[in-house]
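Example 9 (inverse folding). The structure is encoded as follows.
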């Protein structure tokens, strides 16, 4: 069983992001983490291999700093890691999917591919679908449970308003993991130390014959969220406060 897990190096959502120009941000002082949704996919892949045998290969595409995310994946239990190197901050989903497929084709066809349901930075929710299309594989996203029996996988997917759907598909396939699929493990100190010594295979995007200029979907503008204005404390009796609140909502906010 060969399972690839696509992991993304993303800014911690608690970090303050400073935008630079039209479609860039200053990442020199930004804390990065392994995309949380990808962690669920990685944990599930590791559990399957622990039970069925095989190997887990973590793969990412990004800057030199993305190596730390691959180290985290190795510490959790991935057997190998591949880094597709590019200086682009937002390489685009079609280019990323094309690069991921090229690397997987070269490394050996996967039985399964796990991703997160999306990334917490751009929330594009496109790369795994494009990858599935490129491979001609079935894909189910937002998956909260996985059961594998021989070459058939049964998954439960969240479809909104508390409703769930059970889907069965044959291997190879792609699964987009969501919160609740499992509880990702915390690597022990020894595992972290071993991960630091493991070799990470590095491949330049250009060596795959892929040009960033071929990306059809580009980010046009990146803006920081406007600062919130201070709140207003209402005073007086309850009746007075309600009257003032209604006036504000009607005259200032124009929501009623």
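The amino acid assigned to each position is listed next.
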């Amino acid at each position: 069983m060969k399972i690839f897990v696509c992991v993304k190096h993303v800014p911690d959502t608690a970090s303050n992001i400073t935008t630079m120009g039209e479609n860039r941000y200053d990442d020199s002082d930004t804390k990065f983490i392994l995309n949380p949704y990808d962690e669920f996919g990685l944990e599930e892949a590791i559990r399957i291999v622990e039970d069925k045998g095989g190997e887990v290969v973590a793969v990412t595409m990004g800057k030199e700093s993305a190596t730390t995310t691959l180290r985290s994946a190795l510490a959790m239990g991935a057997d190998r890691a591949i880094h597709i190197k590019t200086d682009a901050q937002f390489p685009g989903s079609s280019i990323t999917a094309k690069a991921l497929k090229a690397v997987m084709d070269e490394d050996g066809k996967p039985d399964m591919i796990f991703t997160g349901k999306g990334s917490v930075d751009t929330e594009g929710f496109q790369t795994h679908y494009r990858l599935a299309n490129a491979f001609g594989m079935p894909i189910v996203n937002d998956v909260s449970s996985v059961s594998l029996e021989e070459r058939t996988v049964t998954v439960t997917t969240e479809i909104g308003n508390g409703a769930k759907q059970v889907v069965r598909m044959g291997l190879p396939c792609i699964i987009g993991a969501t919160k609740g699929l499992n509880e990702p493990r915390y690597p022990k100190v020894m595992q972290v130390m071993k991960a630091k010594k493991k070799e990470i295979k590095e491949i330049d995007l250009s060596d795959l014959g892929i040009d960033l200029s071929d990306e059809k979907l580009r980010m046009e503008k990146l803006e920081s969220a406007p600062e919130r204005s201070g709140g207003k404390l209402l005073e007086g009796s309850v009746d007075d406060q309600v009257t003032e609140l209604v006036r504000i909502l009607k005259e200032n906010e124009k929501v009623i």
